[in-house]
């Protein structure tokens, strides 16, 4: 399985680029935004997802590991294929998509060609807990607290470790009882370190 390529961008098409590495050209499909970043004749490093089907063996390229992981997470949902998953990643950043999933914003996902209302709702339903569990890097404070988790879960979803979150919350005075205010105070404690 091919998981990473480094080489020269030889050519580009509407939805793909050809990357030459070791005298072999690999056609990699990519989202519009990432394709725009790839310039013919320059070196590129891409993370790839190798998708093998009965009638095809395709590589999908991503600028970073976060995009790759979200792509593979999207593929885990029934009814979402590689092209639809790539469409989702083309419409917004991985952080924005994770935030929309945690918020339950299925409408954002319906803007992608090939994803209807039912599929978008299924994406939100099936991926919400997975996205929270893997920790949505870059997810805003408001999203984390709106996701229905307690203070500890909110801090963990913001990317802090369990011990960091616990220590910060323990340092917050007991006079603050509102969950949102406790998380804000804990974030201030973490920032002072």
Automatic annotation (TrEMBL):
One of its GO terms (biological process) is DNA repair. It comes from the Bacteria. SMART domains: HhH1. Residues 72-91, 107-126 form the Helix-hairpin-helix DNA-binding motif class domain. It is found in: Cytoplasm. Residues 150-193 are annotated as: Domain III. Keywords: Cytoplasm, DNA damage, DNA recombination, DNA repair, DNA-binding. Pfam families: HHH_5, RuvA_C, RuvA_N. The keyword Chaperone does not apply. InterPro entries: DNA_helicase_Holl-junc_RuvA_I, Hlx-hairpin-Hlx_DNA-bd_motif, NA-bd_OB-fold, RuvA, RuvA_2-like, RuvA_C, RuvA_C_sf. One of its GO terms (molecular function) is ATP binding. Homotetramer. Forms an RuvA(8)-RuvB(12)-Holliday junction (HJ) complex. HJ DNA is sandwiched between 2 RuvA tetramers; dsDNA enters through RuvA and exits via RuvB. An RuvB hexamer assembles on each DNA strand where it exits the tetramer. Each RuvB hexamer is contacted by two RuvA subunits (via domain III) on 2 adjacent RuvB subunits; this complex drives branch migration. In the full resolvosome a probable DNA-RuvA(4)-RuvB(12)-RuvC(2) complex forms which resolves the HJ. The RuvA-RuvB-RuvC complex processes Holliday junction (HJ) DNA during genetic recombination and DNA repair, while the RuvA-RuvB complex plays an important role in the rescue of blocked DNA replication forks via replication fork reversal (RFR). RuvA specifically binds to HJ cruciform DNA, conferring on it an open structure. The RuvB hexamer acts as an ATP-dependent pump, pulling dsDNA into and through the RuvAB complex. HJ branch migration allows RuvC to scan DNA until it finds its consensus sequence, where it cleaves and resolves the cruciform DNA. Belongs to the RuvA family. Has three domains with a flexible linker between the domains II and III and assumes an 'L' shape. Domain III is highly mobile and contacts RuvB. This is Holliday junction branch migration complex subunit RuvA. It comes from Candidatus Falkowbacteria bacterium CG10_big_fil_rev_8_21_14_0_10_37_18. The lineage of its organism: Bacteria, Candidatus Falkowiibacteriota. The gene is ruvA.
């Amino acid at each position: 399985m091919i998981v990473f390529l480094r080489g020269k961008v030889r050519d580009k098409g509407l939805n793909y680029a050809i990357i030459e590495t070791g005298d072999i050209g690999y056609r990699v499909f990519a989202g519009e935004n990432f394709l725009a970043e790839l310039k013919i004749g320059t070196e590129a490093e891409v993370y790839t997802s190798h998708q093998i089907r009965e009638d095809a063996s395709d590589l999908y390229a991503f600028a970073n590991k976060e995009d790759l992981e979200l792509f593979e997470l999207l593929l885990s949902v029934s009814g979402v294929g590689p092209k639809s998953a790539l469409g989702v990643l083309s419409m917004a950043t991985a952080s924005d998509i994770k935030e929309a999933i945690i918020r339950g914003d299925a409408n954002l996902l319906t803007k992608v060609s090939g994803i209807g209302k039912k599929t978008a709702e299924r994406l939100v339903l099936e991926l919400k807990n997975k996205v929270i569990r893997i920790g949505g890097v870059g997810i805003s404070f408001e999203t984390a607290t709106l996701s229905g988790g307690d203070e500890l879960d909110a801090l963990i979803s913001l990317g802090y470790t369990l011990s960091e979150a616990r220590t910060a919350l323990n340092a917050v005075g007991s006079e603050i009882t509102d969950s949102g205010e406790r998380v804000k105070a804990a974030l201030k404690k973490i920032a002072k370190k």
